[in-house]
Every structure is written in C-alpha cells, then in structure tokens.
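Case study 2.
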Amino acid sequence: MDSKPSVSVVIVTWNSEKDILPCLKSINEQDYSNTKIILVDNASTDNTVNLVKKNYPEVKILTQTENLFLTGANNIGMEYAISKNDSDYVLVLNPDTYAAENLITELLKPFENQPDIGATGPMVKFWKNENEGLINSAGLYFDGFMQAYDIGFMEEDHGQFDTQTQVFGVTGACIMYKTEMLLNIGLYDNKIKMYLDEVELFIRAHKVNWRVIFVPTAVIGHNYMQSTNSNKSFNREKQVRKAWLTIALKHYSIKSKLAMIRKYFNI
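Prediction:
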C-alpha cells in the first residue's frame, strides 16, 4: 500500500491523437507514484482512443457517445476519481500539455499542513507553437465582474513569478483540486460548456474561504488552444458571453446582474 495521498489525473480528449501520447508520457514519468489516469473521450472520430489503449492500457478510458465539451466531460472524470478511485486529489489536465516530471509532487506540497487550500496550479508556458517558452499563465486574475485573465500572459520569464503566491484561481489547463473542496462546493457548472468554467468554480470556492495557490516550481508546457482550434464549428465569443451571463446570474448583485444582461443583449 502506498502511504502517499492518492491522485487521479483526469484528461478530456476530443480528436486529440496528435497530442495525447506526449501528454500521457509526461504523466507516466512523474516522480510521484500514487496516481491513476482517467481519460474521458468526447466521441472522438480520429485514432485517439485506440492509441491510448495500445500504448497505455492501464489508463481508464470513459468513452462518451457525444461531445460533452470540456466541462461535462471533466465532471464525469472527476466524479469517477472521487467515487470509484476514492482519490484524495484530482488533477485536471488538458491533453495538449506536457508536464515536468515533478509536477504532481510540487502541486501537492502547499496542501501539507494548510487545510484551507483547495486548489493549486503550475507555471504554464507555451509549447510547440510560435510563442514557445513565453508564459501562458502564472495564475488567474478576476476583477469581480467581467475580466478574468492569465497573469503574465505572453511575458518572457525573468523570474518575476518565482514566488509561490495566493491567487484568485489558476488556469483550467492544469489544476490540482483537493477532493474535500470539491465535495464541499461541487464540480463544474454544466451550463458553461467551456471557457470560464474554472472561474465560476473558484468564485464558489472563495465564498466559503478556500484558498488557491500558484506554484512556480511546478511547470507544464501548453500547446495553447490546440483542442478548441480544431473545432471550427465552436463559436468561442458566443460561449464566453454566455458563460459571463451564467456567472452573473448565479453570483452577482442585482445591479451587476442587470449590467451583465445589458452587455449580453447589447442594450
């Protein structure tokens, strides 16, 4: 029996055959042993599932008959991690990422002896694209209304984010969640198919005083927007506007709700 806390890694795929094997390789080579991998496939029409079965037969694959998008599929994987694997922590990870070998170890460290920490996230750098090496995210900023963005986005890394820091949130490309927090506040809101799903969850977390920590010693590379760019039928701007409206109706004051409705309908 491994005495270390148990971690389930949840990866959602949709036609991810170009990305998934390097991602799984990086997780398979982690220096942390007590992990299980759950892959939730959103009805891929390419060779994603067969590649995973052939190369990583130990991965639990939950194949969907339709595309549930990022939020719905992540929820299925997280529910499995909690109810079937009885995991202490759930790492949500995009398929177009590559993790440093100490990612899980470093993301778990802040939880030790700090029971009010509910989530941690890594330094995310661009990988395999024209912005290679630039910072993708050093945590999330949220202004309380309609601005949420990645701290450090497109900056060169000169060590300006080398300090472990409490932040509003961390990017959805890679989040280590404490199961205790998820049982307390719930999973992602299925009304938000993708984009800002983690923002809505972190709003709920802060309402009941869970803290979120950015961990610069944990690093992943991210082939930014690879998965969503391949879905040409998905209207990103429309989905973002709908997500903000959902967040406003759920969490904001009446005055802010009305302001968001006016923005949404351009009135």
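The mean pLDDT is 94.
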